[in-house]
Amino acid sequence: MQIAYREVEGRSPRYWALLGIIGLIALLGLGAAYYMEHHGHIVTGMTNQIVWGMPHVFAVFLIVAASGALNAASIASVFGKSAYKPLARLSGLVAVALLAGGLMVLMLDLGRPDRVIVAATYYNFKSVFAWNVFLYTGFFTFVALYLWTMMDNSVAAYGKYAGFAAFIWRLILTTGTGSIFGFLVAREAYSSALLAPMFIIFSFSYGMAVYLLILIAAYAWTGRPLGDAILHRLGRLLGWFVAAALYFVVVFHMTNLYFTKYHGVERFILVEGGIYTQMFWIGQVLLGSVVPMLILFNGKLRASRGLLVTACLLVVLGGLAQMYVTIIGGQAYPLDIFPGWEERSSFFDGVVHPYHPSLPEFLLGLGGVAVALAIVTIGVKVLRFLPESLADADVDPHAAG
To answer: What is the DSSP track for 241-296?
Structure first.
């Protein structure tokens, strides 16, 4: 199977309009970061009780999705599925772009981005945050090497090794992201070893949904052939990822319900948490999992590209709801300073901490999404990431027959 790759011409008014809209959103995000940096976090919904707000929801989602966006490339190289090989270059580009967008939001939200050099040169290896410096740079490095082997025939022989290294590193990266919460023993909503594997399966689901949306949009807007067989295969795979993610969510909460000390936080998330309970059941479970599975596991529904796009969008929205419940809901629940002991103070004892995200927080998060999309949009114009055709006859002649 010989696949020809070609850059997007990028001369049409539609291309420049798209790039202009993405650039405007990115500038609004940077402006929001400057506004929050200049006035302080008092202009946000964050407090000294909820220190990770809406920008962290976007940032962690993008970082987790970055790992999953590499699904197509990993399946092609590690598992030897030739039908996925034409999808691998775009898979690597989207993975790098999502991580860059997520890290931009993270750095600007934490404040003092000028001191990033300190975080990169002084390490406290007792903190999982110090590990992230190596995890992020390692991901960029391995994916870049993998892309090099795919795009330069002189090093193509090393492609399988580079693909395997990138596959292992993406699992390590997502394990580290899940462990950030899993190691926070002071927060009852976190503090679970299940969070590391759960974030890995979340990444498979979110990354595949984002990748499919970009793939469908790229081929629709450039007028290149995109066969149904490859979309059916990717859609069915996404369905299994969504089902596995929901399974882990059920196991996580069932495990917590077994232990009496977690009954309070489980009641808060599942029953009495107000917006967090609604986002869990309606956003994460119903719209983000059940409805996409109904579409993706039904061959006739999945054959509709409109419904396939709808399922992917719901998975993305459900992922953002999941991050909101996990990150902000976990902080909103009252902190138990001395587990197993009774203590009293006048400092928010037993108080559910309120949080109302502000417009600048939303804009900063959307700015990260825009940066990721800008990297993809420019990347496909300057380098050969997209095959000229993904028609069934070109990708999988057996499926086409």
So the answer is: HHHHHHHHHHHHHHHHHHSGGGHHHHHIIIII-THHHHIIIIIIIIIIIIHHHHHH
The closest of 283, 319, 301, 106 to 210, measured between CA atoms, is 319
Radius of gyration of the chain (CA): 22
Cα–Cα distance measured from residue 133 to residue 198, given in angstroms and rounded to the nearest whole number: 22
Distance separating alpha carbons of residues 294 and 314, to the nearest angstrom = 12
SS (H, E, C) 283-303: HHHHHHHHHHHHHHCCHHHHH
Q: Distance between CA atoms of 303 and 207, rounded to whole angstroms?
A: 21
Q: What's the rounded Cα separation, in Å, for the pair 164 and 231?
A: 24
Is there a contact between 328 and 353 (Cβ–Cβ < 8 Å)?
no
Residue with tokens 């020809």: 4
Burial class of residue 37 in the structure, from the number of CB atoms within 10 Å of its CB (0-12 exposed, 13-18 middle, 19+ buried): middle
Provide the whole-model pTM: 0.94
Phi, psi (rounded to 5 degrees) for 118: -70, -45
- 401 within 8 A of 91, measured Cβ to Cβ: no
| CA 317 – CA 294 distance, rounded (Å) | 16
Averaged over 228-251, what is the pLDDT? 95
Residue 101 and residue 375 in contact, taking contact as beta carbons nearer than 8 Å = yes
The pLDDT tens digits of the residues spanning 357-389 come to 999 999 999 999 999 999 999 999 999 999 999
How far from 120 is each of 113, 136, 137, 202, CA to CA, in Å?
12, 11, 10, 28
Provide the pLDDT confidence category of residue 397 given band limits of 50, 70 and 90: low
